[in-house]
């Protein structure tokens, strides 16, 4: 086991440890009662790339609005400030990780898996009539982000872990724990804590492979736990894992869903997946 800790990986690494400034400004404006929707739209418009990405998402099958949304001001009004801020966070993070070794991870495959998990989590949240389904999408999008930190900061150990897991038919996160003493999930949780994101996101990411350990947001964590399994089972991209992680029985019970909904979730995911890839990976 190495002596490195998850927090060590982030120390002094500005590119990873600094949350996109646009999200910080949006959150500050949203939480300021003196700021209006017009102020929030103005912040988004200052970033042309983000503006284009958000308008693509709002006009895609992700929302399936009956008429086209032409401006960010319209999007803020129709979608909501918190929801648009969540989407801004997800799409901004996609721009942060570049140039990772292809033998470790294909970024295209990584984000394909992340988008699939995010979509599945959003569908599950909607089925459960949870508020602000976009927060589940963001949690699903970010659930494996710790693995990108590991691939960046622990390149050789990560290469060894991938090789070992495949050779021994072992789940990748179990091989991570054996080799490093922690998993990508913990690294991701610490990263989101460093970014001062909502504690719900931090807990969901940290415990998506161990949902019974989630004490504050057990349902939300169970949602992403199941969504990740569905994305793996449908073979929609990969962050390095080649096996389908096991379903935690307690997490399944916590969701209180009928097994019959799984087919419906897969159908919705199959229907929206390709369109969402085109929308979100267009300039990634």
Write a compact overview of the structure shown:
With 284 residues, this protein is mainly α. It has helices at 6-10, 14-17, 21-30, 37-45, 48-58, 72-79, 81-93, 107-127, 134-142, 145-153, 155-167, 172-180, 184-194, 199-206, 218-233, 249-255, 261-280.
* Helix and strand composition category: mainly alpha
- Termini separation comes to 35 Å
Query: Secondary-structure element order, as H and E?
Result: HHHHHHHHHHHHHHHHH
Q: Give the tally of structural domains.
A: 2
Q: What is the typical, i.e. mean, pLDDT?
A: 91
* Fraction in helix: 55-70%
Shape: globular
User: CATH homologous superfamily of the largest domain, by name?
Assistant: Hypothetical protein af1432
CATH topology of the largest domain, anyone? Hypothetical protein af1432
Segments where pLDDT lies below 50 for 5+ residues?
none
Q: Architecture of the largest domain, CATH level 2? A: Orthogonal Bundle
CATH classification class of the largest domain: Mainly Alpha
- Major beta-sheet overview: none
Beta percentage is under 5%
Number of helices: 17
Let me know the number of strands. Answer: 0
**Rg, alpha carbons:** 18 Å
Which SSEs are present, and which pair or pack?
Blueprint: H1 6-10, H2 14-17, H3 21-30, H4 37-45, H5 48-58, H6 72-79, H7 81-93, H8 107-127, H9 134-142, H10 145-153, H11 155-167, H12 172-180, H13 184-194, H14 199-206, H15 218-233, H16 249-255, H17 261-280
Helix pairs in contact: 3-4, 3-7, 4-6, 7-9, 8-9, 8-15, 8-17, 10-11, 10-13, 11-12, 13-14, 14-15, 15-16
Task: Give a verbal description of the structure.
- This protein has helices at residues 6-10, 14-17, 21-30, 37-45, 48-58, 72-79, 81-93, 107-127, 134-142, 145-153, 155-167, 172-180, 184-194, 199-206, 218-233, 249-255, 261-280.
- It has 17 helices and no strands.
- It is globular, with a radius of gyration of 18 Å.
- With 284 residues, the chain is an all-alpha fold.
